[in-house]
Amino acid sequence: MNDIKKLLDIMAALRDKQNGCPWDLKQDYSSIAPYTIEEAYEVADAIARGDRDGLRDELGDLLFQVVFHAQMASEEGAFGFGEVVAAICDKMARRHPHVFGSAEERAKGPAKGAWEQIKAAERAEQANSGRTSVLDGIALSLPALKRAQKIGQRASSVGFDWPDARGVRAKIGEELAELSAAECSGRHKDIEEEMGDLLFAVVNLARHLKVDPENALAVANRKFEKRFRHMEQRATEERRKLDDFDLEALEARWQEAKRQV
Q1: CATH code of 74's domain
Q2: For residues 156 and 180, what is the distance between their CA atoms, to the nearest angstrom?
Q3: How far is CA 101 from its chain centroid?
Q4: Which end of the chain has less Cβ packing within 10 Å, N or C?
Q5: 62: containing domain
Q6: pLDDT, tens digit, for every residue of 37-71?
Q7: What is the C-alpha to C-alpha distance for residues 179 and 38, in angstroms, rounded to an integer?
Q8: pTM of this prediction?
Q9: Exposure of 121 by Cβ count < 10 A (0-12 exposed, 13-18 middle, 19+ buried)?
Q10: How far is it, in rounded angstroms, from Cα 122 to Cα 126?
Q11: How many C-beta neighbours within 10 Å does residue 221 have?
């Protein structure tokens, strides 16, 4: 706890109205939010690279963001860092009755679907404070793929879902046909809308297959980038550039890269 207190003291000093840092003093929740999101992505990047030293540093940067927001809230008299910690401790204990509950609950062990049931009960309780939809509370700032996944999960929790992956595949075929029709119309707005519907359906297929679409696309991005860089490297070794080749030659080089990396 001494380390946490030191960090809290550093944050308080940075926001001290008399002797603090001018940059830190002029920040508010909105201006800091993009940095919070960026730090979370940098944590994920360090994990993807297997960089444990980097992960340690990035987790520290992310923790600092939590402390920054809590400091601003404390200055307003809204809540402090201790209340943030208490709230997450209460939530984790409440959502894990098989670990932190009564002797009877612990003896039963984890029940299938219990996590979502507990969260649904929490949302129902929040409805008394103005939240009325099962979709309430899904952050608008989430990446679109992740938000689509959560929307699908919430809709599924009340039975609005395809019974299995076959139904989603049929929906994808339907959306592809509608996208083709929109292309024929030439109206960009219609094309964009149908493309969105297609992507939403693909996200739901991923959900049915128990695949995280955000992670799956990140893996695909890395794979494409690695192979494309291999093509560039081979071309450089030949003292050429990729745009020196026609499409057929590029495809041959792509197939070679797939075999190599």
Answers
A1: 1.10.287.1080
A2: 28
A3: 30
A4: N
A5: 2-79
A6: 999 989 988 998 899 999 999 999 999 999 999 99
A7: 33
A8: 0.65
A9: exposed
A10: 6
A11: 10
